[in-house]
Each structure stands twice: as structure tokens, then as C-alpha cells.
């Protein structure tokens, strides 16, 4: 790490200033030691040695948590919220809690929705149990280690046993100061037989300022729990992002991902789910749009450990201008995962001859009695489809727009909050045209 | 004069460097129904695709005029705006775009910006036409042509024809793969459009469609040209005697465009 701002002393004083318990301070310091000793990740087919992971501001704001009125939010943030309805909603602005609300009924049932800073103090045992223990580990590479050392925001969502959360829980992680780095960490725990739908929005001010995002999500679906996890990532052009979302599914559990990967800067984004328990299921769906000169490397990875597990990956990407998008789809069936199923589909639509797209399907199978399949393609808009639409009087631009929205629809339509779905559509619109 | 006039003059068309049409002449006026018949491989569908501007077909010689305007200078969408419509033999499947959204975009493409069709009016028109064609209403929410049966695709083409009300409609083998009940429904849709402002070119190699949609003029294509034209009586003679007598009359051995 060439950034010499960060030292043991800095981390210790940051932790103290945040009034963290000793175990958290120790965790940070240990992670920092690891970060100094360990290498950067090496994403397949993308060289990141020249990416700027060093230029950012870690703390710019040391305000305490607030509770503002939703109507006072700027329009750019408000449009992501179905403001007319009661919201289970958490908003962080530059890592500081700006707003939180959870319905009375859910609060009574023991559901927890809070910012990570508060959770570390108020739900220490739970955070300690799940924070970078069984899902994402500090030791994976320098960026996960730095994440453990410098985590400065995030959310903690906890759904007790047998509780079904009917309305979605939404978080908005809003980067207001253009230089602010989000080392954002989300923990979502769904206990046995529970159900929850969660949607997060990463929003940034549109500037060229250099900064870094280092985002980790850890999702735990216990036996027979169902988690539906939607996201829209939209960091600015000057932002270099590392995003790691990971799920662990126990027996009969189901994790569904619907990820809108819309960053404008260089991005590594990996989404890994371990189907640990028998009959567990994961649908990992993601859409991405690349534009300008950005390079993005996406991995959707499902590991079938348990018997009769079902893992399905679907990623669709659109690359325009000089953008590069690499899409890895990895289906891994471990020994013992009999009757497991691993399916994947990765498709990249190229809108410019200067864009680069690569769909890289990988099946790794260590068990005999399984089913698996993959489909991958990189191509341009089909001229015969364009002809068909234009033959009805639709302009070429509108025809392309229809085809692109159609191409991304399988994931966009999965986003469970209407306002967010609409915003994702608008973000796509803005990026494609 | 009512309706539009489509004139095709000495049209030569190539696909992948191979000449398929070798000088087609044809004029269709508003109110007229023309049928083009002929065995497979004689250039009928190529004519339809070339008129609409399919990207694979290259016009090497000749003219296509719509009310005197040069169609060959127009982009595909401009041809539709000028009043041409092609019901395709193999309509594209477009994933993620619902039939309803596509229909609405198509209708609005023919209207001025700011004068888009009101949603309720659109739904009423679409539902009315779907009822007329005995279509399942759920189809409007399915992705365009994706997973449609052959018969559903053909009905969907006629549905678009009914909603867009073009000046000149070209129907490319709209009857292929239809059972008799579906054929009757599709014919009913076409006949509903019959008026002095609507001209129609029906391409088929079966006579049976023409039992339900009676043409005013019948043309036979062979070897990439119109080799014989006549009235509806020609259909009956072709039905009873086939194409051999025309080949004998004109001294044609192989009626196809040939390798």
C-alpha cells in the first residue's frame, strides 16, 4: 500500500473516535497488519496494477446520526424512494446515518435495521458473530484486508426466526462529498424460516473527483430462509470500486440476487454464493452497462456444496464507446453435491466497435451425478431485429433502445421496489444514450 | 384519386451477390388487392423483403416508387412512415419487449411527438383487434413473438396490420403453417381492411388463402420475374391445372431462380 496516511495510529484513533469496543479496534489492527503483508487480488483477464486504489478520503464527516425529514432530501435521492408509503428505510450520507425507519410491527417482532456503527455498539454479539468471519475473510487479498481495517459505514439487517418481512427493506448509501470513500459493509442475517426482501442503492454525486469504494456484503440465509437481494450501484467516473457480495445458504434456503451494476468508473465486482445446505437454491442475476473508457470485471460464482442444490447465473451486459466488460460465470459443484444443478448464461451486447466484451463461462465439477449447463455470447444488435422493429415505423434509435431494454429486462424486472426499478431503468437510459 | 400507388419498375435484387429478381414490374393502387403466386424459389419473398428494405437484399437496378417518391432512398422506418407495411413470413423474436409495448411504440411512431395515443384508447383498440382475430389477451403481455406458435406469429402480424392501417400492405406467405380455422380468422382480418384507401399485395404459393381473400389481380412469378398476370380466374386455373401449362406456354424448364 503506497498510501502512507494509514498507519496503526490512524486506525486506533479512528476506532476510538467512533467509540468502538476493543474487539473491533483489535479486529481493525489485525486486518491492517494483514493488508500490509498480502497482495492485491488478480481478477482474471483484467490487469489492475495501474488502478488507483490509493486516492481517497477516509473520514470527512464525524457527525452523529440524524433523523431528517424525507421531504428534505434532494430530488436526486428522493426519487429512489416510494415516498407516499411507509418505508422500512435506512439512509447513510457519507457513511453517517441520515434517516432510519422500521415499521412498528417488524420492530416488535425483533427485526433489526440499523447502520453498522450503531450495530457495533448495540448488537455487538451479533455483529461479532457475522462480521468477516464465515463469509468474506480478511485474508483473501489486500482489498478485503483493507476493508476490515478501514470499514467506515454500512448496515446491519437481522430477521429473527419465523419472521416474514412482507414489505421490502431499503438502504441508500449516498456519497455526497465527491472524495469520500465508502468502505461500506452490509450484514444481512435471515434466521430459520424467515423471509426478507432487501434493496440497496449506492448513489454518488456526478463528478470526476478521484476516490475509492470498497464494498462488502455478507448474506446469511439460515435453514429454509428466503432472501431476495436487489441492488443498484452507481458510482461516478472518477471512482475506482471493489465490490464483493457473498451469500451462504443453509438447508432449503434460497438467495436471489438482482444486481444493477451501473458504475461509471473502473470496477471489480464479484458475487459469490455458497449453497451449503441440501436443497438450497441461488438465482444470481446481474445487468451491467459500460461506457466511456471504463474497465469492469464481473464475477458471478455459485458453489454447490449440498445435495440437490440449484445454482442459476444470468448476467447480461451492454458495452458502448471504449468500455471493457469481462463477465466470468463460475459454477462449481463440490464433491458430495449429488443431484446438484449448475446453470449459467452470460450475454454481452456490444454497441460500438471500440468496446470490448468477454463472456467467460467456467464449470468446475467434482461430482458425478449432477446436471450443468452454460450459454455465453458476445454480439452486436441483430440487424434483422432492428429491421423488424423499423419496418413498423420505429426509428433506428428507438428500436435499439427497445432491444437494449429488452435485453436487460430479465434482471431489471426482478428489482422488488418500483421506485428503484424505475430509477434503474432511468440510469440505464442515461448510460446507454 | 384515393389511396396510394406503389410502383415497381424493372427491379433487380441480389442476395450475397446472387441475382434473385431479374426485372419485376408491378403497380398496386389503393383499393386493389393483388396476389403473387408461384412455386417456391421463384423470388416472391425477395420482392417483399426488397420493398421493405431488408438489410440482406441489395437492389442493383430499377425503381420502387410510393406516390412518386423514391422508396429505395428511404430508411426502413421511413418506408413504414410513407405507408408501407410488410407482414413477415418469419417475424423476429424480441426478448424483454412486450407485444403491447411494441404495438404502442409502433402506433406512436406514426404520430407526432406530443400527440401519442392515450393509453386507454390504445388498450381499447388493441383489445378490439385481438378479439376480432380471436387472440388470447395474455399475448399482449408476452415478449414479442418469443415462444409464439407459428399461428400466433401470423395473427400477431395481422394484428399490427389492423392497428397501423397502412396505405399498402404486403403479406408474405401469411397463410403458411396455418390450419383452416386460423386461416379463416386471418382472412377475416385482411378483408376488414378492404377499402378504397388500402392496397394489398398477397404473396402465397397456395390457392386456399385466395378462396377467402379474393384478389382483383393475380400475377405468377417464375425465374425472378412476373411471367403472367390476370384476374381471379387465374387462381382457379392454377388450382385445377397447376403451373405446368404456364411453363409449357413460355418454354420454361426450371421455374426457380437457379444457381
TrEMBL record, chain A:
Q: Show the InterPro entries listed in the entry.
A: Fe-S_cluster_assembly_SufBD (IPR055346), SUF_FeS_clus_asmbl_SufBD_core (IPR000825), SUF_FeS_clus_asmbl_SufBD_sf (IPR037284), SUF_FeS_clus_asmbl_SufD (IPR011542), SufBD_N (IPR045595)
Lineage, broadest ranks: Bacteria, Bacillati, Bacillota, Bacilli, Bacillales
Q: What is this protein called?
A: Fe-S cluster assembly protein SufD
Q: Which Pfam families match?
A: SUFBD_core, SufBD_N
The SUF system FeS cluster assembly SufBD core domain extends over 175-407
Family statement: Belongs to the iron-sulfur cluster assembly SufBD family.
Q: May I ask which residue range the UniProt record assigns to the signal sequence?
A: none
A GO biological process held by the record: iron-sulfur cluster assembly
Q: Which SUPFAM superfamilies match?
A: Stabilizer of iron transporter SufD
Taxonomic source organism? Halolactibacillus halophilus
From TrEMBL, chain B:
Q: Name one GO molecular function term.
A: ATP binding
Q: Which Pfam families match?
A: ABC_tran (PF00005)
| Record keywords, A-Z | ATP-binding, Nucleotide-binding
Matching entries from SUPFAM superfamilies are given as: P-loop containing nucleoside triphosphate hydrolases (SSF52540)
The name of this protein is Fe-S cluster assembly ATP-binding protein
Keyword ATP-binding applies: yes
Ranges of residues in domain ABC transporter: 6-248
Family recorded in the similarity comment: Belongs to the ABC transporter superfamily. Ycf16 family.
What InterPro entries does the database record attribute to this sequence? AAA+_ATPase, ABC_transporter-like_ATP-bd, ABC_transporter-like_CS, FeS-cluster_ATPase_SufC, P-loop_NTPase
The organism sits in which domain of life? Bacteria
Q: Does the keyword Kinase apply?
A: no
Q: Which PANTHER family match?
A: ABC TRANSPORTER I FAMILY MEMBER 6, CHLOROPLASTIC
Amino acid at each position: 500500500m503506497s498510501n502512507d496516511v494509514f498507519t496503526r495510529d490512524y486506525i486506533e484513533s479512528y476506532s476510538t473516535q467512533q467509540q468502538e469496543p476493543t474487539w473491533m479496534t483489535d479486529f481493525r489492527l489485525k486486518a491492517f497488519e494483514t493488508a500490509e503483508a498480502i497482495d492485491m487480488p488478480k481478477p482474471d483477464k483484467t490487469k489492475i496494477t495501474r488502478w488507483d486504489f490509493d486516492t481517497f478520503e477516509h473520514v470527512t464527516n464525524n457527525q452523529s446520526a440524524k433523523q431528517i425529514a424525507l421531504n428534505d432530501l434532494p430530488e436526486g435521492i428522493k426519487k429512489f424512494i416510494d415516498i407516499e408509503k411507509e418505508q422500512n428505510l435506512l439512509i447513510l450520507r457519507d457513511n453517517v446515518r441520515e434517516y432510519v425507519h422500521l415499521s412498528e410491527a417488524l420492530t416488535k417482532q425483533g427485526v433489526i435495521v440499523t447502520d453498522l456503527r450503531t450495530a457495533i455498539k448495540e448488537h455487538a454479539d451479533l455483529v461479532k458473530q457475522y462480521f468477516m468471519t464465515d463469509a468474506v475473510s480478511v485474508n483473501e487479498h489486500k482489498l478485503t484486508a483493507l476493508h476490515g481495517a478501514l470499514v467506515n459505514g454500512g448496515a446491519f439487517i437481522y430477521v429473527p426466526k419465523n419472521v416474514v418481512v412482507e414489505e421490502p427493506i431499503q438502504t441508500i448509501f449516498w456519497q455526497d462529498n465527491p472524495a469520500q470513500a465508502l468502505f461500506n459493509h452490509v450484514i444481512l442475517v435471515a434466521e430459520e424460516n424467515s423471509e426478507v426482501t432487501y434493496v440497496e442503492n449506492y448513489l454518488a454525486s456526478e463528478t470526476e473527483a478521484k476516490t475509492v469504494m470498497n464494498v462488502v456484503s455478507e448474506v446469511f440465509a439460515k435453514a429454509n430462509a428466503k432472501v431476495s437481494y436487489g441492488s443498484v450501484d452507481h458510482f461516478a467516473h472518477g471512482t475506482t470500486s471493489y465490490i464483493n457480495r457473498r451469500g451462504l445458504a443453509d438447508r432449503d434456503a434460497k438467495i436471489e440476487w438482482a444486481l444493477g451494476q451501473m458504475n461509471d468508473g473502473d470496477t471489480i465486482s464479484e458475487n459469490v454464493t455458497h449453497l451449503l445446505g441440501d436443497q438450497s437454491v441461488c438465482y444470481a442475476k446481474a445487468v451491467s452497462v459500460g461506457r466511456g473508457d471504463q474497465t469492469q470485471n464481473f464475477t458471478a460464482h455459485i458453489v454447490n456444496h449440498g445435495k440437490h442444490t440449484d445454482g442459476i447465473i444470468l448476467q447480461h451486459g451492454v458495452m458502448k464507446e471504449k468500455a471493457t466488460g469481462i463477465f466470468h460465470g463460475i459454477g462449481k459443484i463440490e464433491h458430495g453435491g449429488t443431484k446438484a444443478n449448475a446453470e449459467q448464461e452470460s450475454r454481452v451486447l456490444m454497441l460500438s466497435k471500440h468496446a470490448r466484451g468477454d463472456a467467460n463461462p467456467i464449470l468446475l465439477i467434482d461430482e458425478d451425478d449432477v446436471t450443468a449447463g452454460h450459454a455465453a455470447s458476445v454480439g452486436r444488435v441483430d440487424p434483422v431485429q432492428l429491421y423488424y422493429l423499423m419496418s413498423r415505423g420505429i426509428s433506428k434509435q428507438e428500436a435499439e433502445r427497445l432491444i437494449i431494454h429488452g435485453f436487460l429486462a430479465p434482471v431489471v424486472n426482478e428489482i422488488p421496489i418500483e421506485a428503484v426499478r424505475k430509477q434503474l431503468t432511468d440510469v440505464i437510459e442515461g448510460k446507454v444514450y | 384519386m384515393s389511396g396510394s400507388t406503389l410502383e415497381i419498375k424493372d427491379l433487380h435484387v441480389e442476395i450475397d451477390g446472387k441475382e434473385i429478381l431479374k426485372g419485376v414490374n408491378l403497380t398496386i393502387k389503393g383499393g386493389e388487392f393483388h396476389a403473387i403466386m408461384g412455386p417456391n424459389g421463384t423470388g416472391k419473398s425477395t420482392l417483399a423483403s426488397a420493398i421493405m428494405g431488408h438489410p440482406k437484399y441489395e437492389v442493383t437496378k430499377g425503381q420502387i416508387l410510393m406516390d412518386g417518391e423514391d422508396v429505395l432512398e428511404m430508411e426502413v422506418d421511413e418506408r413504414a412512415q410513407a405507408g408501407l407495411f410488410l407482414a413477415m413470413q418469419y417475424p423476429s423474436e424480441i426478448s424483454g419487449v412486450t407485444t403491447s409495448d411494441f404495438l404502442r411504440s409502433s402506433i406512436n411512431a406514426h404520430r407526432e411527438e406530443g400527440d401519442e395515443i392515450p393509453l386507454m384508447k390504445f388498450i381499447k383498440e388493441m383489445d378490439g383487434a385481438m378479439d376480432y382475430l380471436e387472440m388470447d389477451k395474455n399475448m399482449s403481455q408476452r415478449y414479442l413473438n418469443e415462444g409464439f406458435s407459428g399461428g400466433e406469429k401470423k395473427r400477431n402480424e395481422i394484428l399490427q396490420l389492423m392497428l397501423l392501417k397502412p396505405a399498402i400492405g404486403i403479406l408474405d406467405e401469411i397463410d403458411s403453417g396455418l390450419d383452416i380455422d386460423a386461416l379463416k380468422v386471418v382472412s377475416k382480418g385482411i378483408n376488414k381492411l378492404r377499402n378504397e384507401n388500402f392496397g394489398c399485395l398477397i404473396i402465397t404459393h397456395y390457392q386456399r388463402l385466395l378462396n377467402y381473400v379474393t384478389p382483383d389481380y393475380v400475377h405468377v412469378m417464375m425465374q425472378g420475374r412476373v411471367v403472367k398476370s390476370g384476374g381471379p380466374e387465374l387462381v382457379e386455373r392454377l388450382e385445377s391445372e397447376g403451373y405446368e401449362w404456364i411453363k409449357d406456354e413460355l418454354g420454361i424448364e426450371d421455374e426457380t431462380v437457379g444457381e
